[in-house]
Specification:
- Helix content is 87%, strand content 0%.
- It has two helices and no strands.
- Helix 1 runs antiparallel to helix 2.
- The longest helix is centred in the last third of the chain and has 35 residues.
């Protein structure tokens, strides 16, 4: 996962946590749910990218990484 992707996902997680917290404090269930959804989306992106990295690593291991 490149640094830009990590930063964007971390930003989404923190933003979602803030939104969820604001929703809890104000009693706004919709804002709270939006924050939870935003965090879930960032987690899903992280897991997908980790899977891609794992597959790429396996392929590089089998066929040899020609970039090195």
């Amino acid at each position: 996962m490149n640094t830009d992707d990590k930063f964007e996902n971390a930003k989404d997680k923190v933003g979602g946590q803030a939104k969820e917290g604001l929703g809890k404090v104000t009693g706004d269930k919709e804002t709270q749910a939006e924050g939870q959804a935003q965090q879930g989306k960032a987690d899903a992106k992280d897991k997908l990218q980790d899977a891609r990295d794992t597959v790429k690593g396996a392929i590089d291991g089998v066929f040899g990484n020609k970039d090195k």
